[in-house]
Automatic annotation (TrEMBL):
It is an enzyme of class 2 (transferase). Residues 6-150 form the N-acetyltransferase domain. The keyword Transferase applies. This is [Ribosomal protein bS18]-alanine N-acetyltransferase. One of its GO terms (molecular function) is protein-N-terminal-alanine acetyltransferase activity.
C-alpha cells in the first residue's frame, strides 16, 4: 500500500536496529522495546509492517491476532514524519488485517497521548478501561480501547 511518498510493507529483521533507534527517540523515560523483542515478534509470526519513504523506515506497527481477537502491539512514527498521516495509514493497514479474520481489536494508549486517542476514536475504538501505572518506569496511565469486529 502506498500513499504520497510513503509505502507500507512487511517489516524485516534488517529493520530492527532502526526500530530500536526510533523507540529510544520516541519513548525516553520509558522502557523501549529491545532489538530482541522486535526479532521475537517477527519470529513468532505476528503481523508487523513498516512505513518507508525513499527506502528509509519512518514508522512501524504490529498486530498480534488469534481466531478470536487482535491486539495492536505498537504504532510508532519518527518525529519529523508525525502529522502527515503515516500513523493513520499504519493503523488502517493493521485494521484491514484484523477485518480479514473478522475479530475485535484491542490496544493500550497513554492517557496523555491526545493525537493517538483521537485517531483511535475516529477509527471506531472506544474507551474500555484504565490501566494505572501501565507504562514503566514512568508510571504513566493507559486507556484500554477496543473496536468491535468488522466484516469485510
Amino acid at each position: 500500500m502506498t500513499t504520497g511518498t510513503v509505502t507500507i510493507g512487511p517489516l524485516q529483521h534488517a529493520d530492527v536496529p532502526k526500530c530500536h533507534e526510533i523507540e529510544l527517540a520516541l519513548f525516553p523515560g520509558e522502557d523501549p522495546w529491545s532489538e530482541n523483542a522486535f526479532h521475537s515478534e517477527l519470529d513468532n509470526g505476528n503481523y508487523y509492517i513498516g512505513a518507508y519513504a525513499a527506502d528509509e523506515l519512518v514508522g512501524y506497527a504490529g498486530l498480534a491476532a488469534s481466531p478470536h481477537e487482535a491486539s495492536v502491539h505498537t504504532i510508532a512514527v519518527v518525529k519529523h514524519w508525525q502529522g502527515r498521516g503515516v500513523g493513520k495509514l499504519l493503523l488502517r493497514t493493521l485494521l484491514a488485517r484484523a477485518d480479514e479474520i473478522g475479530v475485535p481489536v484491542y490496544l493500550e494508549v497513554r492517557t496523555d497521548n491526545e493525537p493517538a486517542i483521537a485517531m483511535y476514536l475516529a477509527h471506531g475504538f472506544e474507551h474500555l478501561g484504565l490501566r494505572r501505572r501501565y507504562y514503566q518506569p514512568s508510571g504513566a496511565d493507559a486507556y484500554t480501547m477496543g473496536r468491535p469486529a468488522q466484516s469485510v
